[in-house]
Amino acid sequence: MNWAVSGGQAGSTFKPFALAAGLEAGYELKDTFDGNSPYYLPGGGRPFENQGNKPYGRVNLIKATEDSINTAYIDLTLGIPDGPKKIIKTAEKMGIPPAEPANPPYGIPTKSPGLEPITGVALGSQTVSPINMANGYATVANRGVAADAYIIEKVVDKDGVVRYTHKVTDHRAISEGISDDVGYALQQVVKSGSGTKTLSLGRPAGGKTGTATNGKGEVSSAWFVGYTPQPVHRGDVRPWHGHPGGSRAGCRSTSAVPTPRSPGPR
Predict the structure, then answer these.
(1) How far apart are CA 34 and CA 57, in angstroms?
(2) Helix (H) or strand (E) holding 222
(3) Distance (Å, whole) CA 186 – CA 198
(4) What is the spatial distance between Cα 173 and Cα 80, in angstroms, rounded to a whole number?
(5) Could you tell me the pTM of the whole model?
(6) Model confidence over 62-82: pLDDT tens digits?
(7) CA distance 80 to 26
(8) How do residues 105-123 score in pLDDT, each as one tens digit?
(9) Are 99 and 132 in contact (CB under 8 A)?
């Protein structure tokens, strides 16, 4: 199986898209949400829990992202008008394909099975390929501009004549300010949150960890998606995706970006 294309449940690596949607809805990084566990939904139903059922109290969106606090992201989702649909719309703008191929289709592959407007959409039960996840994070690295994923850069015949050169197609997905705020939160994940092992790179980085479990509570999908600035000012975005049995998948997406800045809470 080609894991780079088939992918797996996104887990908490989907939270940055919810963060972007929340910021678009008018929230700020300094705004606080309920990080206690369990989190009981207003209309009843199965409560949501943090890892280890750990309660955090009220936390701002930086802390919620840094420590991957599920319940705070559920609280955020409920606070956004039509939250689940808004989160999906924002993710799609940033490069994540919908549950069924769009018209025209985009992404590799062109769909994300299970990407439905449910309360827990930010927690990542949907299946997303590492290629598409890298492309979605590249939008953050590229300060809000999304570009279509592609495979072939150039075709040269046996005589050295260039027969094909890829032309980048891109669009403004989210504003620079919102992208910078999401990027700032992702940098805190690396500096002092769940992604501190990335500090061993010895350079600025932003990223997010994520896990998904099966019905037995066993880890079925594990991720780290992150990016670094390059000396030639091209962003290097790479996801790592692990699977049961020790198999793994990785891929790379690049986009022209400046060194990630740290705008801080607005």
Answers:
(1) 6
(2) strand 219-228
(3) 12
(4) 18
(5) 0.88
(6) 999 999 999 999 999 999 999
(7) 9
(8) 999 999 999 999 999 999 9
(9) no
